[in-house]
Amino acid sequence: KFLLWTTTNPLVLVSWRRFNSRPAEDTSVADSVIFQHVDRVTLLHVLRSRMRCSARALRVVVVAICCTDLIFAYFALAVPLEAVVARVHRLPAVRLLRVRASDDPRADRIVGGSKTTIESVPYQVSLRYFNNHICGGSIISHSWVLTAAHCLDWYPNNDEITVRTGSTSQSAGGSLHAVFYYHLHERYDPNEFQWDVATVRVRTPMGLGAGRAPIPLATSTEWTVGERILVTGWGYLTAAGKVDDTLQMILLDAVPQESCNRTWTGFITADMLCAGGPGVDACAGDSGGPAVQDGVQYGIVSWGSIDCGNGLPGVFTNIAHPSVRSFIRRTTML
């Protein structure tokens, strides 16, 4: 048995009750799950409840089968397109946010950060679908933007994808550029976390200048562990999926690969980098955005903990990895 609730905002909130051999015992799962754009997910890791869920979403229909111990729950619903276009912060094998069923929705954004301006980070862009912010990205030339593959892996065509450049606000100002085409890394799998990188070609060149400039990319070295990493974006302000209209920034500490891999129980591979700190993190809506050290982009916001800012390191695509760097060169000639 499960409880299903939908809203007009981009959320599907699902909770369920666990049944076992002791039916008199209250074994309600304490956590609810907010699914946002769960298309083509085949394995969901829901922490703390030890659940394993299998799900598949067809553009506007979500069908999921969840099971744990002796529990089976099924739900299928049609939701507005807005309910599946917004990407969420990723954790192992699913892009979801979770909040306690008894808690008020808390702020989910660049946690612990502060406002900044596009003049300070002129490479930052807002990737948009039907003119709604879905992800961040970075300008790497007058015609190319770099972002995460999971930001684009489900779109049937490019017609409604745009890029806003040159604006501190994600919803107004600057310039809107139609997307001509994009490339996903050939080894990217939407059911996995590796090779989370995409290049986006805009139809008309972006006029470079104040508030609009490319950022150099890392080539053969990873970022320096222990030094600060600058991450920027328009992350979600609340669990209800509202994005911040003003650009945010945060400084994170680069985390050693080995310790990050231990923390994430073996999920970290060579094409990933980690950064974080107590009470600070990138979060939902920041995916695809740049992670910068000393004026060079080393990472792309990829995935992290459902509890943004809880001290677990965030995970970034490693631009300096040979396969990632080769992909960028081959698709953009840069």
Automatic annotation (TrEMBL):
This protein's record includes keyword Membrane: yes
Domain (Peptidase S1) ranges: 110-333
One Pfam family in the UniProt entry: Trypsin
Keywords: Disulfide bond, Hydrolase, Membrane, Protease, Serine protease, Transmembrane, Transmembrane helix
Classification via InterPro entries: Peptidase_S1 (IPR050430), Peptidase_S1_PA (IPR009003), Peptidase_S1_PA_chymotrypsin (IPR043504), Peptidase_S1A (IPR001314), Trypsin_dom (IPR001254), TRYPSIN_HIS (IPR018114)
Superkingdom of source: Eukaryota
Gene Ontology biological process terms, A to Z: proteolysis
SUPFAM superfamilies: Trypsin-like serine proteases
GO molecular function: serine-type endopeptidase activity
Membrane-crossing segments per the record: 57-77
Family according to the record: Belongs to the peptidase S1 family. CLIP subfamily.
Name of protein: Peptidase S1 domain-containing protein
Record organism: Anopheles quadriannulatus (Mosquito)
